[in-house]
Amino acid sequence: LSMGQFSSQNIENILAFSQRLKPYSGRGSKLSILEGITLKPLFFEPSTRTIDRHVSAMNTMGGDYNPPFDEKTSSMEKGEPEKDTIITAAQTADILVIRHPRPYAVHKFAELIDNLKNNSAFIINCGDGPNEHPTQALLDYYTVMEELGNLDNLIWLIVGDLQYGRPVHSHMYGIPKFSNNKIIGFPVGGLGLPEEYKPNSYEEFDFDQLSKVASEIDPKSKVVLYTTRIQFEREARKRDPDYDNYDELRKKQIRDEIYREFRYQIPLGLLNALPKRTKLLHPLPRGSEISDEIFLSNNNPKVAMIEQMRYGLQVTMGYFALFSGLEEMLHEPEKYLTRRPLALQRI
Ligand code: ASP
Q1: Which tens digit of pLDDT belongs to each residue from 94-126?
Q2: What is the DSSP letter of 229?
Q3: Nearest by Cα to 6 from 177, 200, 140, 149
Q4: Which ligand 1 atom sits nearest the alpha carbon of residue 231?
Q5: CA of 118 to the centre of ligand 1 (A)
Q6: Whose CA is nearest to atom 4 of ligand 1?
Q7: Main-chain dihedrals φ then ψ at residue 220, nearest 5 degrees
Q8: What's the confidence (pLDDT) of residue 249?
Q9: From 289's CA, which of 202, 209, 256, 281 has a CA 20 to 30 Å away?
Q10: Which residues pair with 204 in a beta bridge?
Q11: How far is CA 321 from CA 118, 318, 326, in A?
């Protein structure tokens, strides 16, 4: 539910097992580790990557999934309460992955099903409003471990919308669990980190100070430049609680207005000036902050956003098995391989 629930050892354990699953996460690969286990995606907010990696991890691990919840075609359209929807999902699925616009809503759902008679399902928080997104933080740590070698002695420069960006909030609980990390926030347009998430020795500067602070970093340092988009939908709801009821055209006008106000971009020059061992990450989707030139640059060793996206699959496979109590099977995944990755070639 929260990054605060993990110890550094828990995190390292998840990452180590995820790494063991790497050879089995290729296209077409199938294991039988989660055979008999069913997933239910319940996304009450949009998702592209998070939903895909959970379904895909289930497939690859040999489990099943029920169709993703869709508000329009579910009985919520007939007025069924959210609670009943969650209880229903827990009757036929073992793992519920939930994303919801209200902070802590997912915690409440977890409490609800934990208190049900004969319940064996559990919930994974895939984003609860502007609060947290702990599984994104896990895949970010995996990316850092693969790309920079470890999770200690790092400088994290966290840029963009720190007020509503939920992966950032999970990181504020996660990064300090490792040794000797420095976290410096660079909010855009005053969207600073709320007090409740601030770890000890956190520093914050306005975004326009980023180049200056970056130029003072020891070139031998390892740096994670963690960028985030402006969460226009949350800012819009704050400005006008009726935002969600407007038609698409009006929503677009409000969104464009907020984008104009908070627009920012990471200049290529800044990335070039950062130490050699810098990795640029982003939880995605990107807005104006990452240009195509950076995002699609195949040969810039500092850019790791597409790798980050790809690593998500094996991390999800890893925590599915661990949270299901199947650690034993992860010692020798080869034993459970039912289909080897396909060697597809373009013709
Ligand atoms: N995909 C991430 C999330 O759901 C980041 C974002 O939307 O900006 O929190």
Answers
A1: 999 999 999 999 999 999 999 999 999 999 999
A2: -
A3: 177
A4: 8
A5: 34
A6: 127
A7: -85, -5
A8: 96
A9: 202
A10: 185
A11: 21, 6, 5
Residues with CB under 6 Å of ligand 1 are 127, 133, 166-167, 228-229, 231, 283-284
Instruction: Fill in the amino acid letter for 53.
Output: R
pLDDT tens by residue, 53-104: 999 999 999 999 999 999 899 999 999 999 999 999 999 999 999 999 999 9
**Strand arrangement, sheet containing 278-281:** 203-204, 182-187, 154-160, 222-227, 278-281
Pairing of strands 222-227, 278-281: parallel
Burial (CB < 10 A; 0-12, 13-18, 19+), residue 324, is middle
pLDDT at 130: 97
Q: Indicate whether this model's pTM tops 0.90.
A: yes
Mutate to test the pocket of ligand 1, among 49, 128, 166 (most ligand atoms within 8 A of CB): 166
Alpha-carbon separation of residue 307 from 81, 87, 277 (angstroms): 39, 36, 16
Q: What is the pLDDT of residues 192-239, one digit of tens each?
A: 999 999 999 899 999 999 999 999 999 999 999 999 999 999 999 999
- Nearest to 110, CA basis, from 132, 139, 77: 132
